[in-house]
Amino acid sequence: MPMNNSHLCVLKPWLAAKKLLPLTVLLLTTVFVSLPLHANTYSECLPKLQEKALAKGVPPALVSDVLGRAKPLQRVIELDRSQPEFTSTFASYLSRRVTPTRVEKGRELYKKHRSLLQRITRETGVPGHYLVAFWGLETNYGGYKGEVSTIDALFTLACDPRRSRYFSQQLIAALQLMEQENLDRERMRGSWAGALGHVQFMPSNYLQFARDGDGDGERDLWNSVEDALYSAAWFLKSIGWQKGERWGREVVLPKDFSYQLAGLKNSKSLSAWRQLGIRDVHGNHLPVLDMRAGLIIPSGHEGPAFMAYQNFKVIMGWNRSVFYAISVGHLADRIAGAGALKNPPPQDGLRLSRTTIKQVQARLSQKGFELGKPDGIFGPASRRALRQFQQAEGAIADGYIDAEVLNMLNLSSKSRRG
Q: 418 and which of 176, 196, 288, 351 could share a cystine (Cβ 3.0–4.6 Å)?
């Protein structure tokens, strides 16, 4: 990847020809200010991370001069604790990501890059409209790739106990990427979580899966759309993308449906779901196939329902959020010419704080419904526990937190509608 002397560079002594600009200039380029609190935590964490990086073969100069000057960023911790996957309703999440403007632009870009996308599909089996959908959701088709210092962001998260191991690995991978690709510190900018380029690869994925899609001999996920889309396809292929299969589909449930059957772990063949009375949104029976699928109910029994196939799980290998995976699949469908959802999610759902979700989890646990340690993230285990509670109370067991559930648990929500 070519170097640019106009880029800011904190320190890179192994490239002596680079002109160094003051650190204060770099800090003025971003609103992500250094963290003023708990300085001891970071001062104690830094030597341990440097030791790990050296053990992984990162050059000592890089460890000292780049990692040694890493600064914790308060805003990164705030964003980690308030991710929309944790706090938004499905209606809010989907409507902000699959917009008419994004659909229209996605269709335009799909046509513009048709020959490239067809070549990628022939080589990987991943259809082009899915690649464009990932591109759209990650950076609005390259419109905003992020301006946060990758080293500072990953340093902050590596020293945070919540996912320290994962982000320590990503920090070391970022340093290895700088060495392998001859990158200066200023090029290493992206999302608050350390993701990079058009399709927001984490550093470890950049190292392992980035490809030269435009044939210039370099892997540049910031400036080359060809490299970015080609790399995204190879990543999806590597984690199990099923050629010739969709991500899933919107379906209609019978009135007497048992919501205990929902969830990705309750996988059944399409033939079995057909026997339970599930139809597509046009009223047709599901096909008689052995193809496996799970049922997703993202906004309760009043909202849409989806059959999720193996490729849905592959999308979640990119981002573990169910909301994200549905959004990618739906945007891909729209880019390919499909219309809006037949049964859109209700707009008046409760937008719950993580504190309220923790309270729900704690009450369920107290009542004997196993879900693990309350953490404010309402994942599959929490939904199963809630379904069991709802069923025991004679309510519709859809695993969805609404005002009725809060009342049954003797909780009042400080949440707003959203």
A: 351
